[in-house]
Specification:
Strand order of the largest sheet of chain A: 4-3-2-1-5-6-8
Mean pLDDT of chain A: 97
Number of domains of chain A: 1
Largest interface: A-D, 29 and 29 residues
CATH class of chain A: Alpha Beta
Number of helices of chain A: 5
Protein name (chains A, B, C, D): TIGR00725 family protein
CATH topology of chain A: Rossmann fold
Shape of chain A: globular
Number of strands of chain A: 8
Oligomer: homotetramer
Chain lengths: 158, 158, 158, 158
């Protein structure tokens, strides 16, 4: 089976996050990876559009109980009916997890991915950062400036 | 987006159920439908194998927290980590639900599909039947003898 | 920790199911068991009312993302946001599962409880019955005519 | 129905987090609030022990498919079988969410609570903090130094 990469990010995003996610989707498709995302707008739509521009396979894991609200670039829409508990499904389905941008939902996915353990978690671009009580950055998440660097940091094509 | 059909059945099945599910998978792929299944063996493996024999797209919705145990004919494996609660995800992701054979897990999927409402639910072959206290068959589920008839009864290609 | 018994049934029920569920709730509370139910109306409300009439502890496992719709006799409302996938949570939380009456949601709970395995599953009163292709009743579920007999059949107080 | 407060924190914690969570549990029980927690050790066990020391009601929402691993001070154990997706159930069941200490699981609960919206989210003691790309603290979470202050910040007893 093909490599699967979960890409998470806010349902509303700016141009910079859109561009990063779109290019990430393109690169993933070019390498034959399946993209797993939340299936809605913003970063989710951008990575889907990028992947489809290279005939990639994109699976949207939706929070609602049916396919309404699914973005136009999904190959498949999984309607979970689980609400935000679907975030756990997204991060368990990736061989690596890449997050783009900052939002509470995105943070929950980053945290669930780290909690899961055993898979690389990469933050692409300027998202939220975590510091402990002493002001030190909490270790564990890998940081990438470009989509190509993000893919390198997953280690999936090393 | 393509039509999606959820196909449910036991992880262990006899030759007759295997043949029905395999042919169902072939027919679904030939019509361009995405197959959604539980991703394990038996009927799930048969419908996946049938669909892949026609280059169809097959999504396995797994109960476990990673992709271990995924069948070889899946295009994508969604690792839910939800245990049997993933049965609800399967039935919400289909524009129709077809069940083949009888088991408690399969029955839960049939019941959750009927509970969901609004989508056709078809039983293909000899599965378990429901009777009320008066011995009358509980209405709602459609019954098909052949895979072709099952697809007709979904009404998706009418 | 106290014994926990999951009681499942339709959100709309007749007088007979109401009476059975209410008496079941009373008996469970008198024996010190915690009642786990779906937290809505019909059989769920009846078992909750019966248990509370004896100062029992009743937990409602709700499908929605907040406590709206919770019945008045619950001690605690767990808002899952999972939709019908919450049925799996209900049946996993009982040391035994008792179903009263017939509906698709109730059937899914009975089936998920049998699929779980290892816990007694009792049908109280006249619900739906399962027959295989040969017309024989599918074995596994225990059948009780009265709430007292249902408790006996759980084996929890043997 | 009583007020319900979700309390989240790591399964392993130091003395300071234990003391804060234990006192928080005591105060919640004294005010008649039901405590919702993850049902395991560390902060979860501390808040449960504190609440039970005042005869409070404590519900543990467990990740596993049965009650194994449930702490000794729970009044009720809800076995979800959902893995870490159960974190979403915890935060939806509270009228307020209080987190104590830092871990990836705890962070996921804080983030899911903020994503849910509409309920106060309080961080008690020195947990992880979030900063945006410019180094500014991300707003939204309320910070308390003592359990009494945490309860004040929920606004539930104003």
């Amino acid at each position: 089976m093909a490599v699967q990469v979960a890409v998470c990010g806010p349902a509303k995003c700016g141009q910079r996050e859109w561009d990063l996610a779109h290019e990430l989707g393109r690169l993933l498709a070019e390498r034959g990876a399946v993209v797993i995302c939340g299936g809605h707008g913003g970063v989710m739509a951008a990575v889907a559009a990028g992947a489809r521009s290279r005939d990639g396979l994109v699976v949207g894991i939706l929070p609602g109980p049916d396919r309404s609200g699914a973005g136009p670039d999904l190959s498949v829409a999984v309607a979970t009916g689980l609400g935000q508990a679907r975030n756990s499904v997204i991060v368990h389905s990736g061989d690596a997890v890449v997050v783009v941008g900052g939002s509470w939902g995105t943070l929950s996915e980053l945290a669930l991915a780290m909690r899961r353990g055993g898979v690389p978690v990469v933050q692409l671009g300027d998202g939220w950062r975590l510091v402990d009580a002493g002001g030190r950055q909490v270790p564990g998440v890998r940081h990438a400036r470009t989509p190509a660097e993000a893919l390198d940091l997953t280690g999936l094509w090393a």
